[in-house]
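Duplicate of #3305? Posting structure anyway:
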């Protein structure tokens, strides 16, 4: 039989074992292809050039993340494939084949598996491209016509990226085989990923894991300004290393300690599975650590998607607090402006407030602006009463200020404690920060500070007094007509420094944010399906090693039900431990996200973890069914 005939025979005979690998890789190809298809299509052209530009940047960033994920996932898949085949490949040596020829046999078989996944992924991607866009737009709540026109660019980009990564690791496998000894290949299947360590070594790993993980958690929640990006990067590195050491030290140490307690070991059939868990943990601790990190990425992505959706709706509501705002040095403009508006539409809500504008040279604050605005507490209290917004803070003291800011989508400046502002040489302590839209859209472009009434009066000679007139109309359809009327008013009062702000209720400049939270949902699906696939592949293959042990136990009189319960407990630990570590870690990763969004995301985190739990429960049921069948204890 020729080389290609042997390759094809091996591929056909082992197709069932390769199926989970091919499906997992093809899913990654499918998602990557569909994002490339969006990038090269004109589906979002109707949203305007700015939205299209932002969406393109988001798709490119997502493609980069998916590319990095593909590097890891392909490396892991090819490594598992090589370990599975090494013992079988070693036997070929006794048939007279050289290591180089065996390596070429492996390379051809690996490439055939990879090409199958690529072809299946692209075909499924083309078939589901319209559905993918429809789901993306449905989640985003965008009214865009779905048009799928097959293009060559997404296929070429997907194939080039995938094959570049896949062939690189396949060639590394070839080099590994070419340099391996016969004995090494034959005994490869019996090697553990983990060399059994002494209790002292496990204790050292456990201590380092807990310490590094705690350090990473503290960096995630640490407030900062210029150091936020460094803290975030450090948190990612530390949490990843800490989880690795946790599964390599603390968790094996706990299970070994429990196994040594006979009272615990010989109750409820634990002896049937706990030693197997210890062995699996020692053998596969890297896999469990990787799965836990992937789960953490998935729950963080889902939480970010939920948070972005809520934040987008809040920002739209924030910006549309008022439809029109006039900023003028005239204190008597309200009646004239109101009359012009009411000729076209009714005024649903209005307010006015006096403010003090100071030049940036007189103020030293955390954010640097050319102009700073100050309002008195009594003036803001009157405005809050007029609009029904209410005040949530007390009047500042003589050396205190309270900041009125806008809603952040995300901010890399998370430090909000011990903030001071200097006004004309005097230092004031910032007592708080509110994003209630008292001044509507103006809060987006200026920093507003609330002062004690006496301090406000003292600062009046230093700057320019301005009056803000705020209106929200009943019907947004009359927006253009009202704007035209107010523009005439602004032109007639130009000598009084009058400016107009108009917020179109039909404005779509932030539609790109909708795509952002939709992408977060898809990234969640990629990560959670990847983590489930990895665990499923691992447990699927481990079940074959348990077949002989289960057969012996059956001959000794062990009933099938008890073996099934032991298998269920073993798999529950395999899924439960990564989930537990992920759940604890997510409190800090989502907490860090909440700090950057200046909101509490605990409820979002809780819902996201529940969703992950539900999906993992489905993977667990599927894995248990496959495990029982492969181990010979299924019904």
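Output from current build:
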């Amino acid at each position: 039989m020729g080389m290609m005939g042997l390759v094809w025979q091996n591929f056909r005979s082992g197709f069932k074992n390769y199926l989970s690998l091919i499906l997992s890789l093809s899913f990654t190809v499918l998602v990557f292809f569909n994002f490339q298809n969006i990038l090269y299509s004109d589906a979002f052209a109707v949203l305007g050039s700015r939205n299209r530009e932002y969406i393109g940047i988001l798709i490119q960033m997502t493609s980069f993340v998916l590319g990095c994920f593909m590097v890891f996932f392909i490396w892991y898949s090819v490594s598992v494939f090589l370990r599975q085949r090494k013992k079988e490949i070693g036997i070929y040596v006794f048939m007279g084949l050289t290591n180089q020829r065996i390596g070429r046999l492996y390379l051809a078989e690996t490439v055939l598996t990879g090409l199958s996944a690529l072809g299946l992924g692209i075909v499924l991607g083309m078939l589901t491209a319209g559905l993918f866009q429809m789901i993306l737009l449905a989640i985003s709540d965008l009214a865009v016509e779905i048009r799928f026109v097959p293009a060559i660019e997404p296929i070429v980009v997907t194939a080039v990226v995938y094959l570049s990564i896949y062939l690189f690791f396949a060639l590394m496998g070839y080099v590994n085989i070419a340099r391996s000894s016969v004995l090494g290949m034959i005994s490869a299947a019996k090697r553990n990923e983990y060399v059994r360590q002494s209790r002292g070594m496990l204790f050292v790993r456990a201590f380092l894991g807990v310490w590094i993980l705690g350090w990473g958690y503290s960096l995630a929640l640490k407030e900062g300004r210029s150091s936020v990006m460094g803290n975030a990067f450090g948190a990612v590195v530390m949490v990843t290393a800490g989880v690795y050491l946790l599964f390599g030290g603390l968790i094996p140490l706990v299970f070994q300690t429990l196994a040594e307690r006979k009272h615990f070991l010989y109750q409820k059939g634990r002896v049937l599975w706990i030693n197997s868990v210890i062995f699996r943990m020692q053998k596969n601790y890297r896999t469990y650590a990787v799965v836990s990190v992937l789960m953490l990425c998935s729950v963080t992505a889902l939480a970010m998607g939920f948070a972005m959706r809520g934040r987008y709706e809040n920002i739209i509501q924030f910006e549309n607090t008022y439809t029109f705002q006039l900023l003028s040095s005239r204190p008597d403009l309200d009646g004239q402006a109101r009359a012009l508006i009411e000729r076209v539409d009714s005024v649903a809500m209005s307010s006015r407030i006096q403010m003090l504008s100071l030049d940036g040279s007189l103020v030293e604050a955390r954010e640097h602006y050319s102009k700073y605005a100050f309002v008195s507490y009594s003036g803001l209290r009157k405005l809050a009463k007029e609009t029904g917004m209410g005040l949530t803070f007390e009047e500042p003291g003589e050396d205190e200020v309270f900041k009125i800011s806008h809603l952040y989508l995300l901010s890399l400046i998370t430090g909000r404690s011990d903030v001071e502002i200097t006004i004309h040489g005097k230092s004031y302590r910032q007592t708080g920060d509110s994003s209630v839209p008292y001044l509507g859209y103006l809060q987006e472009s200026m920093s507003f500070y609330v002062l004690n009434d006496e301090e406000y009066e003292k600062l009046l000679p230093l700057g320019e007094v301005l009056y803000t007139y705020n209106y929200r109309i009943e019907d947004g359809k009359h927006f253009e007509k009202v704007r035209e009327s107010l523009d005439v008013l602004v032109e007639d009062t130009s000598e009084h420094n009058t400016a107009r702000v108009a917020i179109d209720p039909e404005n779509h400049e932030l539609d790109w944010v909708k795509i952002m939270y939709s992408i977060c949902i898809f990234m969640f699906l990629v990560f959670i399906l990847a983590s489930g696939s990895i665990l499923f592949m691992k447990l699927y293959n481990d079940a074959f090693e348990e077949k002989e042990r289960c057969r012996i136990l059956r001959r000794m009189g062990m009933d099938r039900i008890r073996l099934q319960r032991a298998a269920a407990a073993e798999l529950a630990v395999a899924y439960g431990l990564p989930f537990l570590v992920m759940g604890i870690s997510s409190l800090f990763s989502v907490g860090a996200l909440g700090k950057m969004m200046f909101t509490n995301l605990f409820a979002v985190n809780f819902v996201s973890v529940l969703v992950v739990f539900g999906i993992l429960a489905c993977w667990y049921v599927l894995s248990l069914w496959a495990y029982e069948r492969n181990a010979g204890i299924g019904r």
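Confirmed duplicate; merging threads. Residues 274-319 form the longest helix (46 residues). The chain is about 65% helix and 10% strand.
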